[in-house]
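Researcher: Hi, I'm a grad student and pretty new to this. My advisor asked me to get structures for two proteins we've been looking at. I'm not sure of the right format, so I'll just paste the first sequence and hope you can take it from there.
Model: That works fine. Here's the first sequence with its C-alpha cells right after it:
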Amino acid sequence: MKEAFVDKNTTLTIRDTDVPVPEAGQVLIRVVVSGTNPKDWKLPPLWPVDGTPTNQGDDLAGYIEAVGEDVMGFHKGDKVAAFHQVMKPHGSYAEYAIAPDHTTFHIPAKTSFEEAATIPLAAMTAALGLYQRLKLPLPWNPATDPLPLVVYGGATAVGAFVIKFARLSNIHPLITVAGKGSAFVETLIDREKGDTIIDYREGDEVVRAKIKEAAGGRSIHYAYDAVGEHGSHQNVDAVMTAPGEITTMFLSGDYQPPQGIVIGQTIAGSVHMSPAAGKTLEDIEFGAAFFQFIGRGLSQGWFSGHPYEVRPGGLAGLQGALQDLKAGKASAIKYVVRIGETEGVM
C-alpha cells in the first residue's frame, strides 16, 4: 500500500509498505479520506527523538476492512470515522490505517467522508476539555441557569466544536474570541442567548474589556483557550473570577496563572492511554461513549463536522497542506485529502 511519512523538516515521503493487521481491540480501515491537524507538523521536530519520519495522520474516514479479537459492533464494510492512536504506527496517511475500536464510530450514508474526517481529533479535544476537565454540564443534563464560558479561538476546529457542544449543553453566554474567521463563528453562536464575538485584532485591552461587558455582570469561572499562544492565557485569566479554571491544548512553559485561577491541558490522546500508562479508564470510556454520541448526532442532523478544503493529489497533497498549516493559513477550515487520488493507488 502507499503510505506517507513526515520528517522533522515537514518534508513528505511516500513509500510502499505492507498492509497492517489489527490486534485485539483494533480495527483495520480502508482510508477514503484523511484529515490533517496542526500537530502533524508540530510533533515531527520533537518526536521521535531520533528524527525517524513517521505517519502523522490521526483523522480518517473510510470502510472497515478487518477487525481484531474482542471487537464488538464493527464489521467488514461498515462506513466509519476514527481517531488513530497518536504516536503509534499505521496512521491515516495511508491506504489502510489502524484505530482502536473505542475511538471508531459509525457515520451515516448521508455524511461525506470529507466531513467525517474533520471530526475525530478536534471534536474529542473539545469534548474532553469541556466535560472531563472543566466538568461542565453534559448535553443530556444541560445547564438550567446562565453560565458564561469564554472560548478563545472560536474559528479553530477545536474552538468551533467547543461552541457546538456548549450549545447542546445550553451553556450561555458564549463569549467567543476570533479574528478573520468571525463570519464563520457567527453561524455557530446564538445571539438571542447572549452569545457574542470579540475580535482579538482590536488589542488586548479592548478584548478584555469586551469580554467582561459580554458577561453582563456575571462572574466568569470557565474558559476554553483553543489558541494557547500570543497572550491568550493572559487575556483569559485577566477577566476571570476566582475560583476559575482554564483548559487549553498548549500550555506556555513560563506562564503562571493568578491566584485562584487553575489552568490545565487537554490532550485528545488521553482517550488512548491505558491504566498501565498511569491513566485511569475515565477518558477512555468517555471517548468510547462520546464518539457514539457524535455518530448519532450526524445521523439525526443535530451535529456536523467542520468546513473543509480538499487538497488535490491524495497523499502527495499533504506536503502543501502541512506547509500551509505551519504558515497559519488555515482559518475556519480543515485540510483533507482523498487517498484514492494518490498516484499508484488502484
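Researcher: Oh nice, that was easy. Here's the second one.
Model: And its structure:
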Amino acid sequence: MAGKPILHYSNDRGRMESIRWLLAAAAVEFEEKYIETRQDLEKLRNDGVLVFQQVPMVEIDGMKLVQTRAILNYIASKYNLYGKDIKERALIDMYAEGIADLNELIILYPFRAPGEKDANFTQIRDKARNRYFPAFEKVLKSHGQDYLVGNKLSKVDIHLAELLYNMEELDPSIITSFPLLQALKTRISSLPTVKKFLQPGSQRKPPVDDKCVEKVFKIFH
C-alpha cells in the first residue's frame, strides 16, 4: 500500500495551498515536511530531489514531483477530478489558468512593499470584479449546471472555491454581485471533505501575516 503523499514547503500558504485544497477535497490524507530554514532548502537542492531547484515538491506514488500545475494535474487525474475526455480537460485547464493568474497576485500581495500594497490591492480587486468573476459567472449561467465543466466536480471547482475564499479575506463584499459564484462557493464548502478542511485545526494554512513574511524571506531570498 502506498504511503501518504508528503508535501515539502514552508509552513504557509504560498503555491502549496492549492495542492492542500485539492488533496483534502479528494479525501487524501497527507503529511508535511516543513522547510524551516535556508539550510533545509539547500539540503533538498543538494540531495538532487528538486528538478528545477525550487518548491513546492510532493512525494507521491514513488515520484518527487515539482511544478505546481504538474502536481495538481497528477492529483486531479488520479482522483477523477479532471473531466471525462480531452475537451473537458481543455476547458478545465483554460479556467484553471485564469484562476491561477489571479491567485498568483493574491499569493504575492502580502510580500509587497508597504508603499505598493494599495495599488496592488486595487489591481487585484479590479481584475476580480471586471475580468475573472464575470467570466466564471457567465460560464455557470450559460449551462445552468452545478459545476463549471461537465456538471461534475473537477479540480477547477476546488480551485475557484479557494480563490473566492482568498478574495473574501481581502474584500468581504467581493462576490456579493455574483450570485452563481456565491452558490458554487456554498456548494463546494458543503462537501464533507472540504467542510472538514475548512474547520479550525485542519491542514489549511491561515492568512500570511508579517511574521510569516519575514520567515519566508529568510528561507527563499
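Researcher: Is there anything I should tell my advisor about the second?
Model: You could mention this: The chain has two domains: 6-79+197-214, 86-191.
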